[in-house]
Design a protein that fits this description.
Elements lengths: L1 H8 L4 E3 L4 H9 L4 E3 L15 H17 L7 E11 L2 E3 L5 H11 L3 E12 L3 E14 L4 H9 L20 E5 L2 H5 L3 H14 L1
Parallel strand pairs: 1-2, 1-3
Antiparallel strand pairs: 3-4, 3-5, 5-6, 6-7
Length: 202
C-alpha cells in the first residue's frame, strides 16, 4: 500500500524540464510516468573559478525553476544538466565539427569525469533537492581517422563532451567507474532514491 501511494503521489506528477530524448528514454525505461516541458534555458559559460559540479548544479536549478514557474501546483519539476570535465576544463556541447574534434582529442587515451546534476522543484519555486553524480570514463587512444569519421557521423553535436557512450562512441570506452546512465544523461538510481525519500515524507 505504501509503495502504491508513493508511485501515485510522486511519479504521476513528474515534469521533465528537458527535451533530451535520452533523458526521456531513461525515465520511461525505469517506469516513470512524466510529461515534458522544455525549459528554454541557454547553458552559458561557467563563472570564473566555478567548480564543474557547481556549474552543472546551477544549470540544472535554472532549468527546473524556469519550468516550475509555469507548472501546476502539486507537480514536481525535474531539471538536469550533464557536463564532461577533464583536467579542470569543462566540455559542454560542441559548437561545430572543429570543436567536436578538439574535445575528442582531449579525451583520447585519458580518463575524464561526467557530472550530471539534478534539481527537483515544487512549483512555483520550492527547491526540494539539488544533487549530482560523477562517473569516471576512460577512452582508448583515438587516431585522426577515427576522430574524423566519428565527427562526420554527426552524433557528437548535441552531446556534452562530443560523444554518446550508448552510440557509436561505445567502441572508444575501455573503462567506466560509476553510474553508466549518468553518462547517458540522467543518474536514474540517484533520482529514484531522492523521489523515494520525498514520497516517504509526504
Amino acid at each position: 500500500m505504501g509503495q502504491e501511494r508513493f508511485y501515485n503521489s510522486t511519479f504521476m506528477k513528474l515534469i521533465l524540464a528537458s527535451q533530451s530524448p535520452r533523458r526521456s528514454e531513461l525515465l520511461r525505461n525505469a517506469g516513470f510516468d512524466f510529461e515534458v516541458i522544455s525549459s528554454g534555458v541557454e547553458e552559458g559559460p561557467p563563472i570564473r573559478e566555478e567548480p564543474p559540479e557547481e556549474y552543472a548544479r546551477r544549470a540544472a536549478r535554472a532549468k527546473a525553476l524556469r519550468v516550475a514557474a509555469r507548472s501546476p501546483s502539486g507537480s514536481l519539476v525535474l531539471g538536469a544538466d550533464t557536463i564532461v570535465t577533464i583536467g579542470g576544463l569543462i566540455l559542454g556541447k560542441p559548437t561545430g565539427p572543429f570543436d567536436a574534434a578538439r574535445m575528442l582529442r582531449l579525451l583520447s587515451g585519458q580518463t575524464h569525469e561526467v557530472i550530471t546534476a539534478i534539481c527537483l522543484v515544487r512549483p512555483p519555486e520550492q527547491i526540494v533537492a539539488l544533487k549530482h553524480e560523477t562517473t569516471f570514463v576512460t577512452f582508448r587512444e583515438l587516431n585522426g581517422d577515427e576522430i574524423r569519421a566519428y565527427v562526420a557521423s554527426h552524433e557528437p553535436f548535441d552531446k556534452a563532451g562530443a560523444y554518446a557512450i550508448q552510440g557509436l562512441a561505445s567502441k572508444f570506452v575501455t573503462q567506466i567507474s560509476g553510474c553508466y546512465f549518468n553518462v547517458v544523461g540522467l543518474p536514474v538510481s540517484l533520482l529514484y532514491e531522492v523521489l523515494k525519500t520525498l514520497g516517504e515524507r509526504s
